[in-house]
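ping. complex inputs:
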Amino acid sequence: MYSACWQRTLKRAGRLPAGYNVCGRDIHMVAFARCFSFRLTLWLLGLAFTTAAAAQSFTVTHAKVSLIAEKNSLQAGQITWVGVLFDLEKGWHIYWVNSGDSGERPKIQWQLPPGFQAKEIRWPTPVRLGAGTVIDYGYEGLVLLPVPIQVPADYKAGKPVMLSADIRYLICREVCIPAKTQASLAIPPTSAGSQAEDSELFRSTFENSPKAWPTGWKAQVSDNGGFFLLSLDTGASEPKATFFPLEEEQIDNSAAQSVAPYPRGMVIKLKKSDQLLKPISALKGVVVFGAGRAFEVTAPVSGKK
Amino acid sequence: MRRAATCWMMVAVAVLCAASLGRAARVGERAPDFSVTDTNGKLEKLSDYAGKFVVLEWSNRGCPYTQKHYNSGNMQRLQRAWTQRGVIWLTVISSAPRKQGYVTASEENSWLKQINGAPTAVLLDPAGTLGHLYDAKTTPQMFVINPQGTLVYDGAIDDKPTTDQADIGRARNYLSQALEEAMAGKPVSTPASRPYGCSVKYPGTWF
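pong. complex structure:
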C-alpha cells in the first residue's frame, strides 16, 4: 500500500511534521493519494482548490498523527507506555471509545517485535461534541491515546526496538473523513536524549483521565421507566456533573442531563435511549464533576425495569 | 445521618421526576404519520401505505458510511429486493441547505439514475421535520413500519459500524432480518440497534 520511499521516511522520522517533503512531494499528499478513494480525492481537491495555491502544502487529513513513548528505555517484564498523538486541526475532532450518536472510535493495529504485547487504550476523559439532537463524545486539539505495552520478560537491551502501528480513525468537522495512517517509533538501545516533552504529555493525559471509583463512594441507578436516576454518594454535595456512557444505546446522548445536588452527593437524571428496549443490570461510564475531576463508575440498576 | 442522606436523595429524585420530556417514534409504538413531498413533487403520506411494510432510510450521499452501502451497490440491492416483495422503501434526506448531502429534487433524480437506485420514493426534508419526528441521528439509519402502522425496527443497517465495504459481506443485516421475521409473523429478534454513521446534517447544528 505504501511506497518504499514512504516506508523509509516513516522509519527515519518517528514523527512527521506538516508539509514534510519527500521525493519533491508533500508527504501528506503521498499518503493521501494512496489512502483515499478516488471519489473522496475529487471531493477534497474541490474543497482544497479554493484555499490552496498550486504548490502550497496543506494537511489533507486535518491531523498530524504520531507515536510517542513515555520513556525512552525499556525494562524486561515491565509495562511501557506508548501513545498515539493526534494533533488535530482547529474545528476537527476524533472520537471516544463510545462515539455517541455518530462517528467511530479510532482503531490501532500494532506491529510489534516478538514477545511484545499491546493492551487496550486508556481513554482520556472525553468532551460532549455537537448540538441539537445529535451529540457525540470525543476529543479536540492535542489528544494522546496512551496504550500500555508489555515488554517480554526475556527482553535484553542492545538493539533499538521498532514499534509500528496502523491507525484508522474517523475525523470530522461538519463532514467526516475516514483516515488511515501508519506510524513508527524506534526506542533506542540505551536511554539517550531527553523525553521531557513527551513524558509531560503522558503525565497531563493521565491527569485528565478518569480515575477508579473511590472506595466508600456509592453509585446506584433507579429505573423509573423513561429515565435512569443515577445517584452518586460521594460524601460531598456536587453541583455539577456530566455522565458519559461506556455502552452505546443505554441513554439518550442528546437529552439534557439535569443534576440535583443533595448534601452527600447528587442525582443525575438520564433519559433512556430510544433503542434501549431491554432492562439493563448496570450503567457503566465516566462521571465528570466540576473542574474536570473524572471517575469510572459502574452503578447497579434497581426498581421498575 | 444515613437516614437524612437517604431522605435528601429522595428529595433530589422527586425534583428531577417533576420534569419530563416528550418522546419520538419508539419501537413497539405507533409510527407517527407524516406527509412529505418526494423528488417527483408527490406528497408521500405514511397513512397512504397502511397495510404495507414501509422502510425509512436516512441518507446523505456525501457521508462515507452512506457511500459504503451505495458505492458497493448494497443499498440498491436491498431496495430492489424488498420493493419487489411489496415493501414501500422511502429514502429520506434531512440535510439542510448548504450542508453536506443537501440536494434539490432534480439533482437527486439524476443521481438516482446514475447509481441505479431503486427506492419507492425519495423524501426531501431540508427542515429536518421528519428527521426529528423519528429522531434520526445518523446516515444511514433504518426504520421498519409494519402493515398495522407499528414501528418494528429502529437502528443500524447492519452490525458492522465501519466505512469499509469489505465488511458488508461479513455483516448481519438487521434491516433484512427484521423484514424477514416480521413478514413471517415472528417477533423481530433485534428490534433496535445503535445506528452508525455520520450525524444527520440538521439545520442549525454545526457538525
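Residues 60 and 101 of chain B are 5 Å apart (CA to CA).
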